Amino acid sequence: AQSVSQHNHHVILSEAASLELGCNYSYGGTVNLFWYVQYPGQHLQLLLKYFSGDPLVKGIKGFEAEFIKSKFSFNLRKPSVQWSDTAEYFCAVNARSGGGADGLTFGKGTHLIIQP
Amino acid sequence: KAGVTQTPRYLIKTRGQQVTLSCSPISGHRSVSWYQQTPGQGLQFLFEYFSETQRNKGNFPGRFSGRQFSNSRSEMNVSTLELGDSALYLCASSPGQGEGYTFGSGTRLTVV
Lengths: 116, 112
Prior knowledge:
A: 116 residues; seven-stranded mixed beta sheet; four-stranded antiparallel beta sheet; 56% strand; B: 112 residues; 11 strands; 54% strand
C-alpha cells in the first residue's frame, strides 16, 4: 500500500514570500499525484495533478509542483504568496493498477497561514 | 456545470443507529469515491465505485458499505454507529478511474 508524508504540518509566511511544501510518497509502482487545497469553510479543490509527461506541472492560482521520481517527491511551490493563500494543503497519490487506479491516499495536510 | 452534490449537509445520529449518505456526481462522471475526514486521522479512503461496481475498498470495518446506481449516483451506509464515526464524509467524482477527482462539500455526521 502507498503512503504520503507531508513534512510541515504548520507553515507561517509573510505576504510575497516564496512557498515550498514538501511531499514524499512511498510506492514502488506508477502513481498519479495531486495537490488539493481546502480554504476555510470550503470544500477540497484541485490545485494541480501529475499523471505523466513533463514533471513540472502548473496549476491554478500560480501554484506549480515538480515530480522527482528518484526522490519519490512532489513538492508544491509558489514564488510569491498572498494572504488569500491561507488554507490547508493536501498532497495525495493513487497507485495505477490494471486499467484504472486505487483510491486517493492523502498526506496529513499542511496548514498554511499567510500574514499580511 | 453542477458540481458534486452531497446530502444531507449535516446529520446528528445516536450511537447504534444507522445512516445513509447520498452523493450525486458531476454529470458524465462514472467514478465515485468516498472519504472520511477527521482531525486525528485526516482524510482516509473508504471505497470507490465505477459503473456500479466497487473497485477498491479502504481499511474500514464492514459496518461501512456503499453502492452505486445506474445513473452513477452513490450512497454510503454506516450501520451500528459509534462515537468515533463522527466525521466529515466526502464524496468525489471523476470521469473514470484514476483521473482527476472533484470533491463535494461533504456531509458532517455527528454521533451522540
